Amino acid sequence: MAITLNTPRAERKTVTDHAVRLDGVSKSFGRPGTGQVVLDTIDLTVAPGEFVTLLGASGCGKSTLLNLVAGLDEPSAGTIDVPGGRPALMFQEHALFPWLTAGKNIELALKLRGLPRSERRQEAERLLELVRLKGTHGKRVHELSGGMRQRVALARALAQKSRLLLMDEPFAALDAITRDVLHEELTRVWEETGLSVLFVTHNVREAVRLAQRVVLLSSRPGRVVREWDVDIPQPRRIEDAHVSALSVEITDQLRKEIRRHGQH
């Protein structure tokens, strides 16, 4: 097994054909031979600037896969290559420090990145403006709505200046209207920054609404069973006819996987 997080040398640019590549990645928990296999021989590549959504039933290993790519855990077998350095990770919960302001949460990430103190305030303001939260630098977390907190969390992730953004159901706890607004904002930020995104979700329509490619995992253990290229121009909406049609097709396949593994 191997995890490679290669940071390009400052004096030259490294051109690669992938933002992350998983080759034969498996993950088991417990003792060898008796443990539970969560992921089995995953082959997956995300291209530079590509937006990929990872879809599957509960317990299929989506979050485990994201943790492996983030370097929070190691695979039991296979290799993971992230040539742009450590990815940024955004969780379902915003995980902001409540004793810090919105801006200071972002500045902390900038400090950890090594940005000089004299530059942090200006960069935090720029990132807040990028996620359309201009003027909220001094706001405490409890003064922000759920959607605003997730925008700050997104700005903090962007502050890490990674070329790969991992998102683990970041909008699942939000109401439908707020979630729809944040879909639009995330799409805009992705297009403006050129980031590669690997986005985990249970929501089929969300997967189709956002992605250039949808990857479906089977359950028990998780394997890549099918992929769909989403050739629908952005901007998209959840209720668009083409989004709906592809969502129905993917949902039918997901239901087959759930029935095949005896899940209800």
Automatic annotation (TrEMBL):
<dbReference type="Pfam" id="PF00005">
    <property type="entry name" value="ABC_tran"/>
</dbReference>
<dbReference type="InterPro" id="IPR017871">
    <property type="entry name" value="ABC_transporter-like_CS"/>
</dbReference>
<feature type="domain" description="ABC transporter">
    <location>
        <begin position="20"/>
        <end position="244"/>
    </location>
</feature>
<protein>
    <submittedName>
        <fullName>ATP-binding cassette domain-containing protein</fullName>
    </submittedName>
</protein>
<keyword id="KW-0813">Transport</keyword>
<dbReference type="InterPro" id="IPR003593">
    <property type="entry name" value="AAA+_ATPase"/>
</dbReference>
<dbReference type="GO" id="GO:0005524">
    <property type="term" value="F:ATP binding"/>
</dbReference>
<keyword id="KW-0067">ATP-binding</keyword>
<dbReference type="GO" id="GO:0016887">
    <property type="term" value="F:ATP hydrolysis activity"/>
</dbReference>
<dbReference type="InterPro" id="IPR027417">
    <property type="entry name" value="P-loop_NTPase"/>
</dbReference>
<dbReference type="InterPro" id="IPR003439">
    <property type="entry name" value="ABC_transporter-like_ATP-bd"/>
</dbReference>
<keyword id="KW-0547">Nucleotide-binding</keyword>
<dbReference type="InterPro" id="IPR050166">
    <property type="entry name" value="ABC_transporter_ATP-bind"/>
</dbReference>
